Every structure is written in C-alpha cells, then in structure tokens.
Amino acid sequence: MLYIAELISVSQQQLKSRLKRIETSLSRDRKTLETPIKCNDIFRSLPGQDKPIRMVLTKGVAGIGKTASVHKFVLDWAEGKANRDVHFVFPLPFRDLNLMKEKQMSLMELLCCFFTELKPIKYDDYKTIFIFDGLDEWRLPLDFQNNEILWDVTKSASVDVLLTNLIKGNLLPSALIWIATRPAAANQIPAEFVDRVTEVQGFRDPQRAEYFRRKIKDHNLANRIVAHIQSSRSLHIMCRIPVFCWISATVLEKMLGEAKSTEIPKTLTQMFAHLLIVQTKLKTQKYDGKCDVDIEQARKSIRSLGKLAFQQLEKVCTQIFREEFGLKLEKVYSFVHLSVQEFFAALFKFLSFARENKKSSMTDFLKREVDRSLQSENGHLDLFLRFLVGLSLKSNQTLLRGLFTMTRSSQDPCEIIEYIKSKIRENPSPEKSINLFHCLNELNDQSLVQEVQTYLSSRGTHRLSGVKLSPAQWSALVFVLLNSAEDLDEFELRQYDLSEECLLRLLPVVKASRKAELRHVFILSLASALSSISSSLRELDLSDSNLQVSGVQVLSAGLNSPHCKLEILKLCNCSIREEGCAALVSALISNPSHLRELSLNSNKPGNSAVKLLSNLLEDPHCKLEKLQLYDCSIGEEGCAALALALISNPSHLRELNLNNNEPGDSGVKLLSDLLKDPHCKLEKLQWVIFDE
C-alpha cells in the first residue's frame, strides 16, 4: 500500500494558516540572501539569534565607508539618537595606537592618554564599547597564542598585549568590541573571538546614480555623468567605492560643464590626471587667491607629495607622516584615498625617470616595474603599475604638459604591450593576470580580450565545454567575466572545460559570483574559494559528482571556515556515504549560522550521520529552512531522531523531504505528532513509503 503524507494530520485552521505562510514566503524576494544591518544596530541580535553579540568584525576595501560608519555610530550615540543604553564609547584608531606600540602602560592609562577627561572608575559596571578602526594599519603582531594573560586593567603591558586581552575578554569581559579592517588583515583576529562579521559593500547601481544626482545640482549634467560612468566598465566598477565617486564627480562636473569640447576620461590614469589639474587650479583660487597657477610652485608641491607617496608605498604604508606632541596626537596628514597616493607615487617615479635616467629606455624601465609588481606578494604595487604604464602614453603626458615638461620623448607602447602579454602567457596567479589586463586597458590595448569575446560569440554565450584554452586565453576570459556589464549573480562552471587549470584560473570568478554550479571539480581549489575572506559565494551545486570520502572531507574544511557564507548547498547523487556525511555535518555544526538549504538526495548517509544532522537542527544557531533527504536509506531510528530534533528546535525549518526512505511505524507517528505541535513551523513535509 502507498502512503503519501504532505501536511496531513492537521486541522483545517492549521492548514489554512500554513498555506498562508507558504504564500507569504513565495512572495518574498529570495534573491537578497544577505541581511543588511544599520551601523547603529551591529551589536543587536537578529530575530532568532539567542547568543549575545560581543565582538563584531567589519571588513571592506579602502575608501568603501568603514570609517564613515564608525563616525556615524559615535556621533549618533553622542547626540543621543541611538544606543542610549551605552555609557561609554572609546574610538581608538589603530593608526593612533601605533604611536604607543613601544610603551608600557595599563589599559586605564592608555584610555587616559586619548581621553584626558576620564576618571578611574570601575568600567565593568557600565556598558562600554571599544571601536578599533583600521586593523590593516596596525604595525605589531597580535599574538593571541603567546601574549601574556592579563586580568587587571591597572597592570602595565605593551599595547598589543592590552589589545589581545581586551579582544579575548580577559580585560573588561562585559565590554563590546568593534574592529574595522580591510579584508587582507581580517584574519589577524581568530574566528573564535568573533560573534558577527559584517561587510561594507559600497554603492550599488541605484546608489551610484543617487550620489551623483545629489552631489551635482544640475540634474541634466548629473544624468550625463551617470551615463558616462555606465559606459566605461572600469570607471563603473571603481564607482562602487564612495571616494572614487567623489573623484569622478569632481572631475566630470568640471569637464562636462565647460563649453569647450574635451576628451572625457575613460581610464583611471586619465581620470586621476584630470583630478590633479582640477585640484591644482582649485588650490590656487581658494587658498592662494589667484586666478593663474604658479607653475613652478605647483611642480615643487606635487613632486614633494609624490616623493612622500612613493616612499611610504614602498614600505606598504598608507600614512604619509604625522606630528606628535607628548602622548596626545595633534596632527595627522594622509591622502584622501590610497588610490590618490598610488597615483602620486607613480607620477613621481615616472617624472624622476624621465628627468634623471639617460641610460635606460622607457620600455626597459616599465619592464622592470612590471616584474617588480609581479614579485609583490601582497599586491601593493598593482594600482601603482597601472598608473605608471598609463602615464607612459603620450596622450596622458599631453594632459599634464601644463604642469610638467617631459625631457624625454614618449616611445611606441607596442613593445611594453607585448611584454605584458608575454607575462600573462607565463601563467601568473589569476589576480596578477587580472591586473596585467587592467594595465593593457590603460594602454588602450584590448586585443586578447577581443580575441576571447569573438570566440565566445562564435560559440554562443560562454559555451566552452571541452575546449582547450591557453593560460592567456583563460586569463582573458576571467577578465571578461569580471568586467562584464552584468553582475555575476549566477555562474555555471559546468559549461567550461573542467580541468584543474580551468578551476584555478576561474577561481576569482567563482569567488565573485553569488551562485556557482559545478559538476566534477577539483575540490581543493573549491575549498580555497569557500574559505576566502573575500568570497561572495552563496550557492553551490555539486550534484552528480563522485566526491568520495576524501573529496567531502576537503569540501568540509572549506565549509568549516568562519569566512564561509554559503547559504545553499546541493550535493545530490554524489556517492556520499556515512563517513563523508559525518564529516560534512560536523563542519556545518561548527559553522551553522549561514546555511539555509541543504540537499543530500540520493546519497547513503546512514543513521549515525542522520543523528549528527539532527544535532545540527537542534543547534539554536542553525538557520536551515529547507532539507532534502530523498532516497537516503534513512530508517526508523534516523527518522525518529530528525522528528525529535525538530520538536526540540522548531523555529526555522520550513520544508523537509523524506520521500523514499523507511521511517517505520514509530517514525511515522513522531512525524505526525510533529505536525500537530503548535510550535512547528514546517510548511511542507513529504514522505512516501512502500508497504510490501
């Protein structure tokens, strides 16, 4: 006899209520999987979260708005607009803490150095927030393993010891901690101390347009600027960063507002060259009270700034210099954005070579700089190189001829273009290849990109299955995909030649996409993508892959990473058995807060692994809403464990598929009892059993 159960054994009223919830859930926008949080609410638990938030880590690229968020938080608190229950907020930028890295002092003495009005009181009795901005600028290691343990706020120690003990909760355990950083430095904070990770993502398309329309009063001019930004993919991508929107608005408002016809900048070098011209004129008018620029004085100032920018870039430091009086910081000087520093550094380097070096050709000079950038492990010379090759073009030198006279004539760019292409063919890392393509773009060369675009067009969109591409062609394909007009909401890797080289070359695309579908892949590289702090991957489909135990274990290592934000995981028909499933579920138990949907259809997990899965469902941090276990050979014991887990923690799961399993009489009874539970949130429960 065939039994089909789907939302049965419930009253009509319960059925109507659940159908209404289904209709409501279907009307939601399922594409937005991330949870936006206002900066004033970062310490507040989300609905369904029981664990208090003590430590928040906020990451984001330079200029994206991290410091602005910190300032807004502090200002709103100070004005009584938010967080009125907080008694003290201590903003302590890492840049300023660097000045005290050689000193020995207590936490109370450190606070009194920055906040002279403080009195020695017992801060454990008050709600206190410490905000540390700019972890990437901290110049000492945060040794959480070996630093001495400190419990007393009056005991002296080095600043790094004070910081590690404050973050670990040894000092002022009731205090809340907020750390803001660039992504590359985020791994300095061990995951076990972080309760929430947030990311400042910058402007999306509507926000970009809104920024320009608010910034520029002339609406027609604003619309023209928005249209121009959208026409240049390079500028469009950079305008995700608010600071770059300001740079673009400053330049384009001046240029497009003038009556005379001028070539509108389309590359980064052109944009920053125009910014230099605009700011030089503005400085002359606003601060010198003159109409005409003093060319000699302007050259002297720009060279001085360029020298400082280059020297500090060589030290991998964004700070220019500062003046210190006693222990209290009085003056801080820095560029408005790291990219501005990199442009000044490139301009200084280029002018120095053009003026002083008589033995080496411009091409040889640029070749050396290309090699130096490729050897840089942290990529701090990437944008510098893009500006440098851009400045080698005669057209860009012409833009700056009002400020500088080039003593050496420009050379044909063909030779350096070919050299950059040869480096791409040597198969550097995907990130290095992408930057080299950006360099070609600054040199107005798109030959490799056009070659791949033509090839794609001839075969239909992204149809490269079974095709063998050269390393240079793979790099070009990655560049095309990352700089395409559409955001990478979905990327189907199964359409490509699925070799190990393919996955390694396309890893930046997998990281940047929100959804990736793969068949058989090299899971080691995939685990790297999942555990990357910059990964945007939210949905992964590995269905019909013969993962075996080793593959599942490596995948589990990626899922176990605190940086993994995967929300949908599909592993249907992957030959996963008890041992592999146990490793997978154990990883999910250790990192349960993001996954919303798990599909394990047509695998053989076994009752012991299903019991582990039940433990996951019982975890109050588990947010699983959809669980697919069709044809998983789950017997009476496993089904009973699942039912009991859902009775224990019924708040999240909305859909459960147990078709083609063997729940037995006790399993059927428990599942039926579950549906009768008034706290049960299941909207869809499926099981089909065969009674022979």
Structure, explained:
With about 700 residues, the chain is an alpha/beta fold. It folds into four domains: about 1-30 and about 540-690, Leucine-rich repeat, LRR (right-handed beta-alpha superhelix), CATH 3.80.10; about 45-200, 3-Layer(aba) Sandwich (Rossmann fold); about 205-265; about 265-320 and about 340-405, no CATH class. Helices cover about 45% and strands about 10% of the residues. It has 26 helices and 18 strands. The strands form four sheets. Strands 1-18-17-16-15-14-13-12-11 form a nine-stranded mixed sheet, with no helix packed on it. Strands 3-5-7-2-8 form a five-stranded parallel sheet, covered by helices on one side. Strand 14 (about 570), helix 23 (about 580-590) and strand 15 (about 595-600) form a beta-alpha-beta unit. Helix 16 packs antiparallel against helix 17 (about 430-440). The longest helix has 20 residues, at about 295-315. It is globular, with a radius of gyration of 29 Å. The chain starts with a strand and ends with a strand. The relative contact order is 0.07. GO terms for molecular function: ATP binding. InterPro entries: Leu-rich_rpt, LRR_dom_sf, NACHT_NTPase, NLR, NLRP_HD2, P-loop_NTPase. This is Si:ch73-168d20.1.
